[in-house]
Design goal:
Strand 13 and strand 14 form a beta hairpin. With 209 residues, this protein is mainly β. The protein is elongated. The strands form two sheets. It has a nine-stranded antiparallel beta sheet, with helices on one face. The chain has an eight-stranded antiparallel β-barrel with strand order 1-2-3-4-5-6-7-8. 5% of the residues lie in helices and 58% in strands.
Amino acid sequence: MRRFLMPLCLPLLLGASDTFLYRCGDDFHFTARFEKGGVWLFLPKRSVKLPFIDGRHPGEKRFSEGSVSLAVEGESAVLLEGGRVHASCRNDRRAAIWEKAKLDGVDFRAVGNEPPWILEITGDRFDFFYGYGKKRFSFRAKPRVDRDKSETRYVADAGGTPFEVTLRPDPCRDSMADETYETRVEVVWKARRLMGCGMALHCDKLRKG
């Protein structure tokens, strides 16, 4: 596991936006970050910003710059890049949530079920979303690295209640999402022990604990 937190590998895009991860019919995939007046495309070998051009018919939006253009209608898209057409592209909603968190600057993200919860770590800030109403708690904590066990532990005070997070580098399967992640996550909060899975979203240097 990359024990953690790293400088960003992608430019951060601030402000209101919508993030989509498109999977196309030719096994090509890319991320699109829509913002006022344009869209950022994160392609396998480069990133490019396209301005909004127009729409050929109601419901369609087109973006274009140089040899790259994108036509979007609902959650479907067609990408033209370098003379190659990637058609039948559909948004992968579940994967797009993780891409949005990455572009928002989140360093590590974890999810759990029964009850549902989400944990996002950005630097030393923790955002914990709990339950179907997604009640949110935000607080700060520093890591305590247990090098013998190869795990990272955080202890904090969340609104007067002790909150403990342990990250263990071990494959973890989320059966509800049918996904496997790189890290097992344990949250102890309000006499509850919550288990889930997560992964680091940014690469390069580890931040020392």
